Amino acid sequence: MGELFSGIADKYVFEWYIPNVRVTDVVEVLILTFLIYQIMVWIKNTKAWMLLRGILVLAIFILLAAIFNMHTILFIAENLVTVMATAAIVVFQPELRRALEKLGERKFLTSVVPFESNREKSHFSEQTREGIIRACYAMGKVKTGALIVVEQEIRLTEYESTGIELDCVVSSQVLINIFEHNTPLHDGAIIVRGDRIVSATCYLPLSDNMGLSKDLGTRHRAAVGMSEVSDAMVIVVSEETGAVSVAQGGQLYRAVSEDKLREMLTEIQAKKAETKRIWEFWKGRRKNEKKSNE
Q1: Is the pLDDT of residue 107 over 60?
Q2: Is 11 a residue whose pLDDT tops 60?
Q3: Angle CA(138)–CA(141)–CA(147) in degrees, nearest 5?
Q4: How many CA atoms does the CB half-sphere of 245 hold within 13 Å?
Q5: Are 117 and 124 a contacting pair, CB within 8 Å?
Q6: Per-residue CA distances from 10 to 1, 4, 111, 248 (Å)
Q7: Among 277, 249, 242, CA closest to 264
Q8: E strand or H helix that includes residue 244
Q9: Helix, strand, coil percentages for the chain (3-state, nearest 5)
């Protein structure tokens, strides 16, 4: 007996197991942690949580069937695995699409390797920013409803095509004229790309977020819906209250002040300027590499 305890002590107490941890192992753990966290946040912020709860209930039911040897239920479940997997993809299709779009919005890879070298830059000037701000609060004073989509990295071509094509410089006078009551272009949203209005009377996707206030109308739901499927900033002027709200990243910031709106527009303006500088640096570096190779 003494030899047995001595052997166990030697094996499990005195001989410490020190794993060989490599740098790649640490990186792998960090990547998995980040992915699991992002999946949990994604599930929390979408209706996927309700669907996931239904799947968990079904899984528990199948587990109980296995414990109590309910062969018929297990036979049906085994033969429906492929069908259920396909059905889950179909059911989660909107959420999966949004998750992939959000992943594509990350600036890490694009800051290192700008894939779209010939893409038109959507950087807007201070004149455009101030014109939007003046127009929004001028329309708010007289309770004229408005919906302004400020495009960022994701091109909104599919939504642009739902409206009437325009090509005019952004100014407070133009914006007020477009959204004036009983004018041909007042209904729907406008899309701003850089310093120009590219389309008006555009149809935007409505948000199905059940957490939004019931007091909000179609215009605000369209703004949130657009911010859910793209990285655009959407500015809403309420026709009922005249309040100016901003939708960004699926969140609605209600009744923002003029200074707050200027701050938010300046923030995305700075991001675009930084992306432009990175691209110019990368472009210059590639030119230098070509010259050195020649």
Answers
A1: no
A2: no
A3: 65
A4: 25
A5: no
A6: 14, 10, 54, 61
A7: 249
A8: strand 244-248
A9: 60, 10, 30
How far is CA 288 from each of CA 18, 112, 285, rounded to the nearest angstrom?
49, 17, 5
Please count the residues of the chain: 294
- Determine how β-strand 233-237 pairs with β-strand 146-150: antiparallel
Instruction: Tell me how far apart the alpha carbons of residues 129 and 259 are, in angstroms, rounded to a whole number.
Output: 12
- Distance, in Å, from the CA atom of 130 to the CA atom of 12, rounded to the nearest integer, reads 71
Q: How far apart are CA 140 and CA 243, in angstroms?
A: 6
Only one residue has tokens 């740098």, namely: 23
Question: Do 39 and 46 touch, CB atoms closer than 8 A?
Answer: no
Name which of 215, 226, 154, 216 is nearest 189 in CA terms.
226
pTM (two decimals): 0.62
pLDDT of residue 279: 47
| Per-residue H/E/C for 117-173 | CCCCCCCCCHHHHHHHHHHHHHHHHCCCCEEEEECCCCCCHHHHCCCEEEEEECCHH
Residues 224-234 have pLDDT tens digits of 999 988 889 99
- Identify the three-state secondary structure at position 216: coil
CA 186 to chain centre: 27
Cα–Cα dist 143/13, whole Å: 77
Indicate the pLDDT class of residue 289, thresholds 50, 70 and 90: low
CA 218 to the chain's CA centroid: 20
Q: Are 172 and 134 in contact (CB under 8 A)?
A: yes
Q: Are 131 and 171 in contact (CB under 8 A)?
A: yes
Q: Span 25-33, mean pLDDT?
A: 90
